[in-house]
């Protein structure tokens, strides 16, 4: 591919990643060849998926919506296979260890995209696929102030106008014979939610922005897009659901394949399940023992309810959460947990109105290539004045003084936000900026919950341990249920009961988790990643002996982006490491 004049933001983003400073660490011809292939790959993939470009911080395609006709998918499949072949031509000996990591990340990203387009084509078997194409593209424009509100409203209008035609094509693409009943239900429910999102949250986010003429255009485009999603939901219910009899389970072969893409090394399913079940049993026993320490006369559920009743008032919620971040930072520094990058303490803000239906608490960090909207916020969803007292109490129960500290450790210090700060500081390749390994990224944040309590967060108060174990049990159950639903015939009802029995949650959240597992087979990556990181830490301790430093280990762990833990072992323990992940 001939070099082109760099005139677009996308090209500039790629050029920055390939600048002399960024390229200085690439000392081999193979690394340079791979970097060139990656630059071409991302620019072309952003054209296929404009919403992903916006989310990444590339704004050349912000008015566009992904095309979803079979011909476009066929072109993308051909392109992806061509890029895989180009990567395969690079001699392994020509790559440094960092180059090997980058190649693995790029190949895995391409293979996962091919899986979703060709092996189990979401555009044929997932009604929800099209809900995401539209609503996520709108959300990515709304979520960050990368341009003035009026300009972003113009972008939203441009994307909204393309939604009706996209959904018309979706109805032609979907094949009921490939769709499961639960996928049809999820797609229909989410389509209704997308219509509500457009009519409510999107309209609210841009209310009063721009001229009266622009507002009229916005009202029209929003009404048409919302009506299209309402009609799409009806189509799913009447034309898809009655004939949607496929299994949601992907099967052992596909499950093992996806685990290999995530973990690099092939871990037998039998070992994965055995490890997960053992960790669940350990955490469940610890939860019961800890609850008895707090109050031996109550059941574990009653003890947990007593924790949930101890929460800040609605008007003190944000001040309490901000104070918790100060506590976490002070604890990290005083206990030498990690060398925090020099940055202001994350600011707690109310979750934007248009996001409140999706989350209680979340870390809102910029896309990896964003150069304008570079603020990072810790979102806390407030109590709505219109709620009943019962609804307010239930909402605040999540923010009890123990659970929110654990959640904040996961989301901010030393979890996702600190990970983001390390990535921002490091001279990462374009591939390393763009790709995220679930087992490492979520495993790191989940590892932090346990590690911080292990190191003394909460001063030994067993209520903090119980809150940490409550979150761990939920992730442990996801790990086991994901495998059993997709490889052993576990039903949604059986999975729901499993969550109730083992995570000590009610019927409704248990059912929600069981349904999530049907759509996200590998959602056990929280626990899996945590266990692999604990194993890596133990191996590092054996290697270093008395010289081992927890802070140095964490600093090294976060200095390489978000690669597979398989390669983190080599980067930390040595290129010849052949130790097991688990």
How would you sum up this structure in a few lines?
The chain is mainly α and 582 residues long. The protein has helices spanning 9-17, 20-23, 29-48, 50-56, 70-88, 97-119, 122-125, 127-142, 149-160, 163-173, 181-205, 212-240, 251-263, 269-294, 300-308, 317-334, 389-398, 403-411, 416-425, 430-434, 438-454, 462-487, 492-503, 507-519, 525-544, 550-557, 565-573, and strands at residues 347-350, 361-364, 377-380.
Task: Describe this structure as you would to a colleague.
With 582 residues, the chain is mainly alpha-helical. It folds into 2 domains: 9-243, no CATH class; 256-528, no CATH class. It is 66% helix and 2% strand. The chain has 27 helices and 3 strands. It has helices at residues 9-17, 20-23, 29-48, 50-56, 70-88, 97-119, 122-125, 127-142, 149-160, 163-173, 181-205, 212-240, 251-263, 269-294, 300-308, 317-334, 389-398, 403-411, 416-425, 430-434, 438-454, 462-487, 492-503, 507-519, 525-544, 550-557, 565-573, and strands at 347-350, 361-364, 377-380. A 3-stranded mixed sheet has the order 1-3-2, covered by helices on one side. Helix 23 (492-503) packs across helix 24. The chain is globular, with a radius of gyration of 24 Å.
């Amino acid at each position: 591919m001939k070099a082109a004049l760099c005139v677009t933001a996308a090209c500039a983003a790629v050029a920055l990643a390939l600048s002399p400073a960024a390229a200085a660490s690439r000392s081999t011809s193979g690394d340079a060849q791979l970097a060139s292939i990656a630059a071409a790959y991302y620019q072309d993939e952003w054209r296929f998926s404009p919403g992903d470009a916006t989310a990444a911080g590339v704004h050349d395609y912000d008015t566009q919506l992904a095309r979803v006709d079979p011909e476009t998918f066929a072109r993308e499949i051909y392109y992806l296979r061509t890029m895989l072949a180009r990567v395969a031509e690079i001699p392994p000996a020509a790559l440094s260890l960092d180059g090997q990591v980058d190649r693995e990340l790029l190949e895995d990203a391409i293979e996962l995209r091919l899986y979703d387009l060709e092996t189990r084509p979401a555009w044929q078997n997932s009604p929800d696929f099209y809900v995401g194409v539209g609503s996520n593209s709108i959300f990515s424009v709304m979520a960050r102030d990368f341009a003035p509100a009026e300009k972003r409203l113009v972008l939203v209008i441009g994307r909204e106008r393309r939604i009706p035609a996209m959904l018309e094509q979706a109805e032609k693409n979907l094949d009921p014979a490939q769709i499961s009943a639960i996928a049809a239900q999820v797609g229909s429910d989410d389509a209704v939610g997308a219509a509500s999102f457009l009519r409510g949250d999107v309209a609210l986010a841009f209310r009063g922005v721009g001229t009266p003429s622009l507002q009229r255009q916005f009202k029209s485009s929003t009404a048409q897009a919302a009506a299209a999603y309402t009609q799409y939901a009806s189509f799913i219910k009447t034309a898809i659901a009655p004939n949607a009899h496929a299994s949601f389970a992907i099967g052992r072969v596909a499950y093992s394949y996806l685990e290999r893409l995530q973990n690099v090394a092939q871990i037998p399913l039998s070992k994965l399940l055995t490890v997960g079940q053992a960790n669940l049993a350990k955490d469940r026993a610890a939860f019961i023992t800890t609850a008895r320490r707090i109050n031996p006369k109550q059941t574990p559920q009653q003890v947990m309810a007593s924790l949930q009743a101890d929460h800040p008032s609605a008007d003190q919620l944000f001040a309490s959460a901000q104070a918790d971040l100060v506590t976490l930072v002070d604890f990290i520094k005083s206990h030498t947990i990690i060398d925090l990058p020099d940055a202001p303490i994350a600011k707690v803000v109310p979750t934007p109105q248009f996001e409140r239906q999706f989350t209680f608490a979340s870390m809102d960090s910029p896309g990896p290539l964003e150069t304008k909207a570079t603020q990072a916020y810790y979102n806390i969803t407030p109590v709505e004045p219109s709620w009943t007292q019962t609804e307010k109490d239930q909402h605040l129960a999540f923010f009890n003084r123990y659970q929110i500290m654990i959640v904040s450790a996961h989301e901010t210090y030393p979890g996702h936000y600190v990970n983001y700060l390390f990535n921002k500081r490091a001279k990462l390749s374009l591939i390393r900026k763009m790709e995220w390994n679930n087992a490492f990224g979520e495993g790191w944040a989940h590892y932090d919950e346990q590690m911080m309590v292990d190191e003394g967060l909460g001063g030994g108060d067993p209520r903090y341990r119980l809150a940490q174990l409550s979150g761990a049990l939920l992730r442990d159950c996801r790990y086991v249920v994901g495998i059993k639903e997709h490889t052993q015939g576990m039903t949604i009802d059986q999975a729901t009961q499993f969550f109730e029995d083992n995570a000590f949650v009610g019927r409704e959240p248990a059912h929600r988790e069981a349904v999530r597992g049907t759509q996200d087979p590998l959602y056990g990556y929280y626990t899996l990643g945590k266990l692999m990181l604990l194993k890596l830490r133990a191996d590092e301790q054996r290697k270093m002996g008395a010289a081992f430093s927890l802070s140095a280990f964490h600093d090294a762990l976060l200095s390489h982006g978000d690669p597979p833990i398989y390669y983190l072992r080599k980067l930390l323990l040595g290129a010849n490491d052949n130790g097991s992940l688990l």
